[in-house]
Amino acid sequence: MTDPPPVRPDPAASPLLTDLYQLNMLEAYLDHGFTEPAVFEFFVRRLPPSRGFLMAAGLEQALGFLEALAPSPAELDWLERSGRFSRRVLDWFAELRFSGDVDAMPEGAVFFRDEPILRVVAPLPVAQLVETRLINILHFQSLVASKAARMVLAAPGRTLVDFGLRRAHGSEAGLFAARASYLAGFTGTATTLAGMLWDIPLFGTMAHSFVQAFEDETAAFEAFARSRPEGLTLLIDTYDTEAAARKVVALAPRLAAAGVKVRGVRLDSGDLLALSRSVRGILDAGGLSDITIFASGGLDEGDLQALVRAGAPIDGFGVGTSLTTSSDAPGLDCAYKLQEYAGVPRRKLSTGKATWPGRKQVWRSVDARGRMRGDVVSTLHDRPLGEPLLQPVMRQGRRTGPPPSLPEIRARAARELAALPEPLRALEPHDYPVRIAEPLTRLAAEVDRRLAKQVQPS
């Protein structure tokens, strides 16, 4: 008996990381010859109540998935042994590669409801098969980038660090959250692997357990400082926060004499506004006005905004659970829908889930100050005023150019946030205008008339 083929080292790249119904449809498409080019678009139907805008993220991983789309020997072996699928499907999978076209909004772009941020054009079975994983990648990173962008707006000029790996819903989610938050404007992450993969700046302090392991809090501070002097930040709320701040004042000269400088202190509990003020006073009185205060502990953008507006002397924040789970809005009402098949526009008419047919483009206009004024969604070949947002990123399965660097994506995201209307920058309710243009409504009416003829009794 021979051993089974080795398992793929990265399951996230598997074409079998999908819903079974994709494979069911695949077999039916092949059986009935439905292999003409299809157009699918990914978009968000409506924004969560707490979101005035969204930020696109995840395109790099989505394109990487499409580029590498091919079954492994182990996957082909399992498909055959499962007994679920015909020889036609098995042979099709053996030759599977993505050779289609992709247009997309760049990562870091702000987008709104009804606006496609990615369009796939490929033979119907292929374009259908990749749906699940593309949604999985784009949904999560866009969700986290949008949450992070709100925090960047809530705490301008402050250091913001992703602390969320341990509460993330899985390891990939933790890594993707580090990337998405950084491109949206965070300063860095505590997730070490994200630093290796994407050169994201790494931040780390110490845990309460380190302090608890010592009989004396000052001894814990000094031991840590001498072992890890670079960028030294001490956690001071394990016992009595104000007493610990005084210990830092007493310890700092001794450390300085040894060439070790305390850069900051971290608060992780309690009334952060009151404690930051009292700690700031203790440090300043002790001649340590250059020591920064960093705060963490269950924070979201509302907390950041309130602390900043109250004048809390906090220089930076670590954000975990609320970021990596997008706790106030953990899911987007998003979809990847068929808009055209074999050159014919298609439309879904389900109640509350109707789609706009055909290939579309989004045009954005700005005012004299460069602030976003409104968007228009129309057919691909319409030419309303404004800048077209979807750009070619893949043709015949190959990228149209080198991907932008993460710093370049961060710069785009910063420009996009700066161009938001003032109410959105202030995280206030604002109904940003997204207009469906007349050519698109006319096309929808034409599709409706065609569909009406199909459902009429003969």
UniProtKB/TrEMBL annotation:
Listed Pfam families: NAPRTase, NAPRTase_C, NAPRTase_N
Start and end residues of each Nicotinate phosphoribosyltransferase C-terminal domain: 387-443
Reaction(s) this enzyme catalyzes, per UniProt: 5-phospho-alpha-D-ribose 1-diphosphate + nicotinate + ATP + H2O = nicotinate beta-D-ribonucleotide + ADP + phosphate + diphosphate
UniProt GO cellular component terms: cytosol
UniProt keywords, alphabetically: Glycosyltransferase, Ligase, Phosphoprotein, Pyridine nucleotide biosynthesis, Transferase
Pathway assignment: Cofactor biosynthesis; NAD(+) biosynthesis; nicotinate D-ribonucleotide from nicotinate: step 1/1
Gene Ontology molecular function, alphabetical: glycosyltransferase activity; nicotinate phosphoribosyltransferase activity
Coiled-coil boundaries: none
Ligase among keywords: yes
Domain Nicotinate/nicotinamide phosphoribosyltransferase residue range list: 160-340
Residue intervals of the Nicotinate phosphoribosyltransferase N-terminal domain: 16-138
GO biological process: NAD+ biosynthetic process via the salvage pathway
Entry EC number(s): 6.3.4.21
Leader sequence residues: none
Family under the similarity heading: Belongs to the NAPRTase family.
Function recorded in the entry: Catalyzes the first step in the biosynthesis of NAD from nicotinic acid, the ATP-dependent synthesis of beta-nicotinate D-ribonucleotide from nicotinate and 5-phospho-D-ribose 1-phosphate.
Listed name of the protein: Nicotinate phosphoribosyltransferase
Taxonomic source organism: Phenylobacterium zucineum (strain HLK1)
